[in-house]
Specification:
By secondary structure, the chain is of the alpha/beta class. It contains 4 helices and 13 strands. The protein has a single domain, classed as 3-Layer(aba) Sandwich (Glutaconate Coenzyme A-transferase), CATH 3.40.1080. Pfam families: CoA_trans.
């Protein structure tokens, strides 16, 4: 049998990283406690709607993260779990990582936003290890996916070499099983259905349903008219 041809989409098409973060910010609700993972998720802090109150939590022991600092606001001692400098809102609190993980494991975080290298059509996530690359360890990722009430993934739909990252089954080491609820990529917004499959909810400006189909190796479900992402 001929070898299956991998997806090869133009790099940079669709939403950029800030636009992905801005779209995810629309999922926030008033009163939510939210954990932001490393990478694109941290950008969500810059796009929280002004008419709601959301409290951002970092597993290294900070509750009440504000937007990224300007050059004048940078404090090298004030960082998030990804070691990026951050700001603190009025009323914020600092505590040990042990207390922070107690909050996570106790299911007191309403929404967790994570990056991923792969997501399967069953909602499995792989986001901590790439074979043959040195990593320090899983960190808090397993605690977050095991304890979160709701997980949204911010990721690129395809890798730099054009291979799909939304798969039937993950090929990389798994972080958590059947835990992802929604995915926002440069191409689309998708819901992971309980029975399995990626349901297409919205597509990025300039992107066609066919583009998303070609870029998705897992089961893609398309029903009715698909709206364009509004950001």
């Amino acid at each position: 049998m001929p070898k299956e041809t991998e997806t090869s989409l133009t790099v940079g098409i669709g939403l950029d990283k800030n636009q992905i973060a801005k779209r995810i910010a629309q999922e926030l609700k008033d009163g939510y406690y939210v954990n932001l993972g490393i990478g694109i998720p941290t950008l969500v802090a810059n796009y929280i709607p002004s008419d709601i109150n959301v409290i951002l939590q970092s597993e290294n022991g900070l509750l009440g993260i504000g937007p990224f600092p300007t050059e004048e606001q940078v404090d090298a001692d004030l960082i998030n779990a990804g070691k990026q400098t951050v700001t603190m809102l009025a009323g914020s609190s600092l505590f040990s990582s042990a207390e922070s993980f107690a909050m996570i494991r106790g299911e007191h975080v309403d929404l967790t936003i994570l990056g991923a290298m792969e997501v399967s059509e069953n909602g499995d996530i792989a986001n901590w290890k790439i074979p043959n690359k040195m990593v320090k360890g899983m960190g808090g990722a397993m605690d977050l996916v095991a304890s979160a009430k709701n997980i949204i993934v911010a990721m690129q739909h395809v890798s730099k070499d054009g291979k799909s990252k939304l798969l039937k089954s993950c090929t990389l080491p798994i972080t958590g099983l059947a835990c992802v609820k929604k995915i926002v990529t440069e191409l689309a917004v998708l819901e992971v259905l309980p029975e399995g499959g990626f349901k297409l909810l919205e597509i990025a400006p300039g992107i066609s349903i066919e583009d998303v189909q070609k870029a998705t190796k897992g089961k893609l479900i398309v029903e009715g008219e698909i709206p364009t992402i509004s950001i």
